[in-house]
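User: Here's a structure from my thesis project, written as structure tokens. My advisor, Dr. K., wants to see whether a designed sequence matches the one we expressed. Can you design one independently, without my sequence as a hint?
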């Protein structure tokens, strides 16, 4: 785990982005239905729903609020993947629950027969747990502990932005960097 904090510290000097996904469910056949990528300085590089090609479970809809009808006009994963993959390949990547997001990226690509070449995704939950030993860390708990006003809401763009802020707070110096508007 010490490696996660060391790797996170190195992000100050390279392009990185925060990733978040929302999915049809939590199982081995579920897929991504929303994805967001927020650059380390705050620029939104991707924020889109995705046509799932399978039903969204009621339990997942209760968590993120996305219904099947919300995805009717969404682009397909096959049309989005080239751009998403290029961004993931050209940046270091952080995510609150990296294992989950990486698994769902793989499952979604496998479903459509797409190759997936993604570098390591740094897990912010592991980094946070190292600095703040808690039994069940959540993204909301990390926000509270780190003094981040914005709270996650189980939508990809907001949660990716919150993850970006958590990453900055866990880096040495702990200052959130943002683009100038």
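Assistant: Designed independently from the structure alone:
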């Amino acid at each position: 785990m010490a490696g996660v904090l060391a790797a996170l510290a190195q992000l100050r000097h390279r392009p990185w982005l925060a990733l978040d996904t929302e999915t049809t469910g939590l199982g081995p056949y579920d897929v991504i239905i929303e994805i967001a990528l927020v650059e380390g300085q705050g620029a939104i590089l991707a924020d889109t729903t995705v046509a799932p090609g399978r039903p969204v479970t009621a339990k997942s809809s209760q968590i993120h609020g996305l219904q099947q009808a919300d995805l009717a006009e969404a682009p397909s994963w096959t049309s989005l993947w080239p751009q998403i993959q290029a961004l993931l390949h050209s940046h270091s990547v952080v995510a609150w629950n990296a294992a989950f997001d990486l698994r769902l990226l793989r499952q979604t690509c496998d479903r459509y027969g797409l190759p997936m070449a993604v570098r390591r995704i740094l897990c912010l939950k592991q980094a946070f747990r190292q600095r703040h030993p808690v039994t069940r860390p959540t993204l909301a708990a990390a926000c509270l502990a780190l003094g981040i006003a914005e709270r996650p809401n189980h939508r990809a763009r907001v949660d990716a932005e919150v993850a970006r802020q958590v990453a900055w707070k866990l880096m040495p110096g702990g200052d959130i960097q943002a683009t100038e508007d």
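When you compare it with your expressed construct, this may help: Residues 156-170 form the longest helix (15 residues).
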